[in-house]
Amino acid sequence: MDSLTLPLDLRAIERILPHRYPFLLVDRITELEPDKRIVGIKNVSLNDHGLSRQRGMPPGLPPTILTECVAQVGAILILSKPENRNKLPLFMGIDRVRYRRPVHPGDTVEIEARVKRLRSRMGQLYGFARVDGKVVLAGTMTFALGPAQEGSETIDEGGQKARRA
Question: I need a labelling partner for 9 at 20 to 30 A (CA). Which of 21, 33, 118, 156 fits?
């Protein structure tokens, strides 16, 4: 993970994030500027685990799941730094997050997170998600980094499961 080659696919993302299906909500990372910004992609399909299916309404991605998508893209930005490897990202809060339009199966969501404040153990990101160039979510998210969980599994460079130290 010393050198990240873009775009990052699912296997590369799994080497960075501790999340796994059905809780891993990022399909691809297309842009990454360390300590500044990141852009990721979420392809929404009818098979997505978190889709809400309300009677009389088309299925859609709930705002809470969309918020988690943005948080995961931001976590990849933070955890891609060598000094943050294997730390546990903690979603601490959201501020002024606005949901502007629904997201439906077939949509490709482009997610961007920009660093507002970054310290060694805490930080804030401004995140937004777009579908067809139109903003569907925007807001500020706060995170903290906890110590690495001893004995937790990760995927090594060869794609094999390995234990975290």
Answer: 118
Q: Are 117 and 92 in contact (CB under 8 A)?
A: no
Over residues 28-76, the pLDDT tens digits come to 999 999 999 999 999 999 888 778 777 777 889 999 999 999 999 999 9
Supply the Cα-derived Rg of the chain in whole angstroms: 16
DSSP class of residue 89?
E
List, in sequence order, every beta strand (DSSP E) within the chain: 28-33, 37-43, 88-99, 108-118, 122-131, 134-146, 153-155, 161-163
Q: pTM of the entire structure? A: 0.85
pLDDT tier at 2, thresholds 50, 70, 90:
low
d(CA 52, CA 83): 38
Domain-located, residue 2 = no
**Full domain range(s) for residue 47:** 10-163
4 in a structural domain: no
